[in-house]
Amino acid sequence: MQWLASIGRNTIDTVGAFGRAFLMLLGAVIAKPQLIKNTPLTIKQIYVVGVQSLLIIVVSGLFIGMVMALQGYTILVGYGAEGSLGPMVALSLLRELGPVVTALLFAGRAGSALTAEIGLMKATEQLSSLEMMAVDPLRRIVAPRLWAGIISMPMLAIIFSAVGILGGHVVGVDWLGVDAGSYWSIMQSSVDWNEDVVNGIIKTFVFAFVITWIAIFKGYDAIPTSEGISKATTETVVFSSLAVLGLDFILTALMFGIE
Amino acid sequence: MENLLEIDNLTFSRSGRIIYDDISLRIVKGKTTAIMGPSGIGKTTMLRLMGGQLKPDSGDIRFRGESIQSMKRNRLFTVRRQMSMLFQSGALFTDMTVFDNIAFPLREHTKLSESVIKTLVLLKLQAVGLRGAAQLMPAELSGGMARRAALARAIALDPELIMYDEPFAGQDPISMGVLVKLIKALNDALQLTSVVVTHDVTEVLTIADYIYILAEKKVIGSGTPEQIKQSDSPLVQQFLKGQADGPVPFHYPSDDIEHTFLGAK
């Protein structure tokens, strides 16, 4: 019977957490917009979660593009199809690797920082003091961070893919001697704006929303102790990564699934 | 005497544990009321109930006759502009300077120009002796200075009620003396109503007009400092004299020791 009680308890806890997460989201999003006050706060958060994540995104994008070109070339050259290296790198990055790897890096770099920051604000009573000063923490703390995440991550994913394509060019064209004209022109003719680029961007918006929501909620709902914040930060990275991978499969099936 | 805050038949429990069982308190306008009691009995919880951050299971908490737990969120936030709370940790925003921390409630709730805000903030800082620390970050302040800066922020909007959560905890004798003097001086100068939650007996007896002592989920004693000192309640006397054992036992409830060790054999 113990295991049955444990399943029941965990189910109630999970449903409760979903309920609290939705209420937090509603409180942050469905509120009278305070553009004059919130815009500077959102811009500051875009700098913190977006601009400060640029280095890891650019470096990762460059190396992933380079590795893909190297791997792709060794396979394609066997069939005399090394001219298709451009579309292979571009499609892989735009459809999958750009959104997914950026999302995983974003969860590790910015998501964990958001959780730790809000969790510590809770532990040091800063959130309570906001409430007692008649300032709603959902509007002041949660909303700017949520919007900053949703705005920043798609831009980071676009930068990731662009840098990756350049990395592929460095290895494929400059190093391995693939014709530059065919690298770019076949890529241009193979990549469809709606099917490949727009679908990839839609994915990044979904991932950005989910990661930022999880990260902020985990901080907001953290047990305000060092152990609680540590656990919440770990959960942010684990849950965000799993959510991204699961959602990626669903979105891919919906967007590119064979009819 | 007019009551600013009234608590009637308050019952509150958390995680199935009863914290308060049918207690009533009165906070008189313009006076300093101390709420004392051993650690862990939920004194901070009482402040959170007064500020509407927690809702009681039953009973009523009224601010100027208006029930706090029945207020809608917007109304509660409006009422909170007349309340203020000094948190135990200070709760200063760590990403802002001391100046910006004190300016924060003014910028949020008033349309004053920056030059007026600057004047007001510097006056508040002068009152707590920290005008010279205006541009420091909270991490650069000592514990006592942080609490004084938080006090300046708490009085920024000239509230009617100010709640102090363990203002003297963890302070060295000089900082403690400064805080006692400041609380007394600010109360007199600004005609504030204060609620001080603490277990520092000596300090609170010097500043409180009325004292409630909480223990075992109830109010076990109340009165002026003189009445409290002369109370014949063993619980009150144990608390005032800091005796390790008494009605509040030294040992956390457990099995009989013989049973524990013999059982272990």
UniProtKB/TrEMBL annotation, chain A:
It holds the Pfam family MlaE. It is a multi-pass membrane protein. One of its GO terms (cellular component) is ATP-binding cassette (ABC) transporter complex. The keyword Transmembrane helix applies. Its main location: membrane. The chain crosses the membrane at residues 46-69, 76-94, 142-166, 197-216, 237-258. GO terms for molecular function: phospholipid transporter activity. It is found in: Cell inner membrane. The keyword Acyltransferase does not apply. Keywords: Cell inner membrane, Cell membrane, Membrane, Transmembrane, Transmembrane helix, Transport. The complex is composed of two ATP-binding proteins (MlaF), two transmembrane proteins (MlaE), two cytoplasmic solute-binding proteins (MlaB) and six periplasmic solute-binding proteins (MlaD). Part of the ABC transporter complex MlaFEDB, which is involved in a phospholipid transport pathway that maintains lipid asymmetry in the outer membrane by retrograde trafficking of phospholipids from the outer membrane to the inner membrane. Probably responsible for the translocation of the substrate across the membrane. Belongs to the MlaE permease family. NCBIfam families: MlaE family lipid ABC transporter permease subunit, perm_MlaE_1. This is Intermembrane phospholipid transport system permease protein MlaE.
Automatic annotation (TrEMBL), chain B:
InterPro entries: AAA+_ATPase, ABC_transporter-like_ATP-bd, ABC_transporter-like_CS, P-loop_NTPase. The keyword Hydrolase does not apply. It comes from the Bacteria. GO terms for molecular function: ATP binding; ATP hydrolysis activity. Signal peptide: none annotated. Residues 5-241 form the ABC transporter domain. Pfam families: ABC_tran. Keywords: ATP-binding, Nucleotide-binding, Transport. This is Probable phospholipid import ATP-binding protein mlaF.
